[in-house]
Write a structure and sequence with these properties.
48% of the residues lie in helices and 20% in strands. The chain is of the alpha+beta class and 82 residues long.
């Protein structure tokens, strides 16, 4: 059984271009991902990841130093690659 996750960007009425990206994996792979992802978010005391907030240090990322963001992103990318 395969499961897919998709997300969009630029889909408001004011945008001329929209983008959709996604990941496709087996159910077992998603279980592993979810466990690792939850651990990462917990370690950094984040409830969810909104990349726009992370990049602009808004929301849950307010007060973060650029080094902390870089460390978080590297760990997140490592989980995604696995």
């Amino acid at each position: 059984m395969l499961t897919a996750y998709f997300d969009d960007s630029g889909t408001s009425q004011n945008e001329r271009i929209a983008v959709v990206a996604g990941y496709l994996a087996t159910t077992e792979m998603w279980k592993t991902f979810n466990s690792r992802w939850s651990n990462l978010l917990s370690k950094y005391k984040v409830t969810h990841l909104r990349r726009a907030d992370l990049e602009s240090f808004h929301g849950q990322f307010k007060g973060w130093e650029p080094e902390r963001r870089t460390e978080f992103v590297k760990k997140a990318h490592a989980i995604i690659r696995r």
